[in-house]
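Reopening closed ticket. The problem is back. First fold of the pair:
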Amino acid sequence: MRITAKRNFAQQASAFEPVANLFAPYWRQVNGAKLSGMSFEEIDEAEWAEPRTDVYAAMDYYFENLNQGRPYFLAGHSQGSRLSFMVFSEYMKEHPEYYSRMIAAYCIGDSLTVTYLKNNPHVKAG
């Protein structure tokens, strides 16, 4: 998985290296081969377990050690987008000082719904 993650980083995220400091932590994902056989509820439950814990720990590390009070941009793809929405709904609600410095988020592969925005009034879509 780490080899694939490094390859994906090189193919996708490295495009931002000339203009940004990148932080792309490892996190446990739900097995993609199992997703097709899982209900939405099962996927949701699985993603709110270990992956969520890993991502929140990575966010803590980033803000406490690397960000230095700078504005930032958050990006996610597929499961990373779903986890980004979890970050917005919980983590950023608890850390408005971090959310206020976010320039934008780019979350490809999941939907930002009207229901989500109603349930998370602190999240702004534009």
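Second fold of the pair, where the issue appears:
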Amino acid sequence: MKVYITRIIPSIGVDILKEAGIEVVEWAEKRDLTQEELIAHCKECDALLSVGSNKIDHHFLNESSHLKVIALLSVGYDRVDVAEATRLRIPIGNTPDVLSNATADIAFLLMLAASRKAFYMHKKILNGEWGFHDPTVDLGIEIYGKTLGIWGLGKIGLEMAKRCAGAYKMKVIYCNRHNNPHAEKEVNATKVSFDELLEQSDVLSIHTGLTDETRGRFNKDAFSKMKSSSIFVNTARGAIHNEEDLTEALKNGTIWGAGLDVTDPEPMHATNPLLNMPNVAVLPHIGSATKKARDAMAVIAAENIVAGLQGKQLPHIVNHELY
């Protein structure tokens, strides 16, 4: 059995695959594979471990229908045509529950960085502009005791809420399809409607998956309902917010600031105006970028591959209906 991996991954994952007698082929070039290149490589393999932005769409799946399993090195699976994979009887695995702390740390960092214009002020030092002290300019806002709104209060959202409620005594509100009784008990979270979330949040943090329902949900209309003093934080998927609308909302003062670990498109172009706004903090999608989190993701992805190639149920599967 042979698995194709679209990036160099932590060795702990590769070791698991090799110990199971699986031949490993890793793409080592520092560029993304084209879909046709990926299809060609997969035709010589029995499984795919997908890292990055590979589109596992209808075309790819039908050209690679022989694959016994596809494992993702991510929690999100918005780039996968899950319905078609299920029709073709290809199990899809992901890596949930192991990057919650790492991603929540980034959301918390971005909230603080935006509130104090930290990235912008750092650039002033680099540009030789740390000079005359004016006590009335470049002022940030304090978030202690403010209201944190979370759209998508799952494991990552709860970790963000715990940080905000514990360190800054923030009130927590959330908008989910269903109630989260555990979060309501742990951080005294209150479920609200989407409009109430927009209207009441001082910091609004996104922790939901990218679906047809969530795509572009934070647009001009949504931003217009938020407080002019509010901070928008997105560490989920860039396409959940409309970037042109977000830029305009920040320019005209509809909202106060933003912290982004995800953009649309990715990578963000170096000339994007968001990068030079005083009250905006942008990171290059590093939510899971800790050794602990990436090692754990590699282990889960490898375990999904091993199970799939052995004809067993994947320990972390997206298309449960296969079983």
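Update: turned out to be a display glitch only; the data is intact. The mean pLDDT is 97. The chain has twelve helices and twelve strands. Please close again.
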